[in-house]
Design goal:
Elements: H1 12-21, E1 39-47, E2 54-59, E3 62-68, E4 71-77, E5 79-85, E6 91-92, E7 98-103, E8 108-114, E9 116-117, E10 123-130, E11 137-142, E12 148-151, E13 154-158, E14 161-167, E15 173-174, E16 180-184, E17 189-195, E18 197-198, E19 203-211, E20 218-222, E21 228-232, E22 235-241, E23 243-249, E24 255-256, E25 262-267, E26 272-278, E27 280-281, E28 291-294, E29 301-306, E30 315-324, E31 337-343, E32 350-355, E33 366-375, E34 387-390, E35 395-402, E36 413-419, E37 426-429, E38 435-441, E39 446-451, H2 453-456, E40 461-462, E41 477-480, E42 482-483, H3 498-505, E43 519-520, E44 528-531, H4 543-547, H5 549-558, E45 563-565, E46 574-579, E47 587-593, E48 607-613, H6 619-633, H7 667-678, E49 683-684
Parallel strand pairs: 1-8, 10-17, 19-26, 35-41, 44-45, 44-46, 46-48
Antiparallel strand pairs: 1-4, 2-3, 2-5, 5-7, 6-9, 10-13, 11-12, 11-14, 14-16, 15-18, 19-22, 20-21, 20-23, 23-25, 24-27, 28-29, 29-32, 30-31, 30-33, 33-34, 35-38, 36-37, 36-39, 40-42, 43-49, 47-48
Helix pairs in contact: 5-6
């Protein structure tokens, strides 16, 4: 973000307009040249999603940016740049891994790279169409990957996951139609065979249904022509010659074979033959279909699950369990509360049970819920699915109210409006620690919270209204009130309203191209550490010593620490830089981190740079510019409108120190900076009421 910073002249109003238009990534300076260069954007997408592969962007052999995974790089100069995808262990880099990117002003250039797992971490798929030698096309597709295709026999290595396979047409032959679902596991090999028969040959379809799906049970299918086909899991084989087929299920150490383990049947022409096999586990299996939700009654929970049928030892009963959510990686099921026991009613059942506070649950407490089966040998099924749920009767609209210095405000009325509950508003008063809590809610509801300080201390605060809030938003609110005060009468442009002045100075008065919304974002910690390098300019000024007076002045005038000086430039929140690379400005402020072309207040800053022109020839001017730029660092995103009021943050800070450092920062500016520091992070400034 860049702002003009110069003394009064006949072109003041022109300069103010320029300062507003030139907000890019820093602040403060002397505009005296052309506008900023046109810039473009590079939109980087790395697949699979969330991989976070490294990349580098270079322009004319100079490093532009480095990063990981999906990124949006804005503010890039026009022209050709070179993009490199980095390497990741166990992954194949995109092809090509080097791209030339032509950045154009005002445009977003997409760059997409697709990484593939190395063969050691993939499943192998072998494709063999019949008859031998036929150039049959085939296609494999999956979510988030390109379509793989081939002709005739071939093989591909794919990441574990779910895919679909289909055959293509060959002149003079009937296509083995349909879509085959593939459930690929890492390190496994899968054979896909398809018989292309000549037209008018009697044929039909064979469907293989292996349960459970997750087992991917093996099988072999022998046809009337003695052709043997094999696979794993469900399969749909289309266009097979009519005749007798034999299906044999493969054994598994942990699962009992279906009954029978093999079967044969005749496939009629233009018919469909289905082979089904239900494997049964020797060991207890997790319960399927678990669902838990708040019931219609206060403090009630509804639990549902499916019967466990695919085991060799039948389940005799089911236990419903709950354990309080703790700060641990997993629930303590050995110490769980037994909510109830249900006798098994046989296969194919869906169980639904309601439990309430009488089972030992506490209102407002969050629990893990699950169901475990108990088989005929006294073994409990393992826990795979669990649901976290907060008990009803423990949801409250709650929060803390503070003033513009971060102190709790006691005795302030707060009104809570409940929408859709058939209940009127609730008015309560904040406690001595500034906290408040409304009535208990048993389920999600839409509410809004409005402070009513005008009822207790008229004229002292600008009240605040949250607007509609939904479940998860109306607990532990942080609300802050702004003092209702005027502004300098020599600056009538703000209508005498401190709230109007505050919104204008922080660019939160309305969404613009400089700010997507009206939320107030600022540093998440204070004091800010400042690094100022050693530098003596051509006039013999010790620039470090001159600029170091600015942090001290802010601390003294504000009455508390806003800045500290550090010698560690890497760890510093704010770094000064002296240079002559921008003759248009005496000073600027840039947001360095997070990376990107951000405005001050656009997001929570992590690091800023203060640029100071190295050729200034007046010592007091150096101190004034440094003082002014630190005002931008503290959240004054804009410039003050009135020269006559004597604001430090006017477009020019010349003369700010004429009456000494104790008079350099205007009282309005002190109140503004204090509000920025102590108001809640991300507060929507549109919620304050004039």
């Amino acid at each position: 973000m860049r702002h003009a910073d110069r003394g009064p002249s006949g072109s003041v109003f022109v300069l103010i307009l320029f300062g507003a238009m030139a907000l890019l990534a820093g602040c403060g300076g002397d505009p005296a040249g052309p506008g900023p260069q046109a810039t473009g954007t590079v939109d980087i997408k790395c697949l699979p999603a969330g991989l976070g592969a490294p990349w580098t962007l270079v322009r004319s052999d100079q490093l532009v940016a480095v990063g990981y995974g999906d990124s949006l790089l804005g503010g890039l100069p026009e022209g050709e740049q070179v993009f490199y995808w980095g390497r990741l262990p166990g992954w194949l880099s995109p092809e090509p891994d080097t791209l030339r990117v032509q950045v154009a002003g005002g445009q977003a250039i997409p760059v997409t790279g697709i990484y593939g797992l190395s063969h050691d971490h993939r499943a192998k798929v072998v494709v063999k169409p019949e008859p031998e030698g036929i150039a049959a096309p085939w296609f494999i597709s999956g979510e988030g990957i390109p379509v793989y295709d081939g002709l005739g026999e071939g093989q591909v290595w794919l990441p574990a996951g779910r895919y679909t396979f289909s055959w293509g047409g060959v002149a003079g032959f009937v296509v083995p139609g349909g879509i085959i679902l593939l459930e690929l596991q890492e390190g496994a090999t899968y054979n896909l065979q398809g018989l292309y028969r000549t037209e008018n040959t009697p044929a039909g379809d064979v469907i293989i249904d292996a349960e459970p799906d997750s087992l991917l049970a093996g099988w072999t299918l022998t046809g009337p022509d003695k052709t043997v086909r094999s696979g794993r899991g469900d399969a749909s084989l289309y266009g097979l010659p009519a005749g007798t087929y034999q299906l044999d299920w493969s054994p598994d150490d942990r699962w009992a074979l279906p009954l029978p383990a093999g079967s044969h049947a005749d496939l009629e022409s233009y018919d469909t033959l289905v082979f089904q096999g239900h494997y049964r586990s020797y060991d207890p299996l997790p319960i399927e279909g678990l669902e838990v939700q708040l019931g219609p009654a206060e403090g009630e929970v509804d639990i549902s699950w499916n019967s466990l049928d695919n085991v060799t030892i039948p389940i005799e009963s089911y236990l419903m369990l709950a354990t309080p959510v703790q700060e641990v990686a997993a629930p303590a099921w050995e110490e769980a509360i037994v909510l109830g026991s249900v006798v098994a009613r046989g296969p194919g059942e869906v169980y639904r049970e309601a439990v309430g506070l009488e089972a030992g649950l506490l209102p407002g407490v969050s629990y893990w819920f699950t169901v475990r089966g108990l088989d005929g040998q006294g073994r409990l099924t393992p826990v795979r699915d669990k649901v976290v749920l907060a008990m009803g009767g423990g949801h409250w609209v709650s929060g803390t109210l503070t003033d513009a210095q971060g102190r709790p405000l006691a005795g302030i009325p707060v009104q809570i409006d409940y929408t859709g509950l058939g209940e009127g508003p609730e008015v309560l008063v904040t406690a001595t620690d500034g906290t408040f809590r409304g009535r208990a809610l048993s389920s999600a509801a839409e509410v809004s919270v409005t402070t009513r300080s005008r009822d207790a201390v008229p004229g002292q605060w600008y009240d605040f209204s949250t607007g509609p809030l939904h479940d998860g938003q109306w607990e532990d609110l942080s609300l802050g009130l702004i003092p209702r005060r005027g502004v300098d009468p020599d600056c009538p442009q703000y209508g005498g309203s401190f709230l109007t002045y505050l919104r204008a100075m922080t660019n939160t008065d309305l969404p613009t191209n400089q700010r997507p919304d009206t939320r107030l974002n600022k540093w998440d910690h204070y004091p800010l550490s400042v690094y100022i390098p050693d530098y003596v300019n051509e006039h013999g000024f010790d620039m470090r010593a001159l600029c170091a007076t600015a942090p001290a002045t802010w601390n003294t005038d504000m009455g508390e620490a806003y800045f500290t000086i550090t010698d560690d430039s890497l760890a510093a929140d704010v770094v000064f830089r002296f240079g002559l690379d921008n003759p248009q400005f005496n000073g600027e402020v840039f947001v360095l981190l997070p990376q990107g072309n951000h405005y001050i207040g656009d997001l929570i800053p992590e690091k800023m740079e203060v640029y100071i022109a190295a050729d200034m020839s007046i010592a007091q001017r150096v101190r004034e510019v440094a003082l002014h730029e630190l005002g931008h660092v503290l959240g004054c995103a804009s410039h003050s409108l009135c020269y006559e009021a004597g604001y430090l943050m006017y477009v020019s800070s010349a003369g700010a120190l004429d009456n000494g450092p104790l008079n350099a920062i205007h009282p309005d500016e002190k109140a503004l900076i204090q509000c920025v520091r102590y108001l809640p992070q991300g507060v929507d400034m549109a919620g304050y009421i004039e």
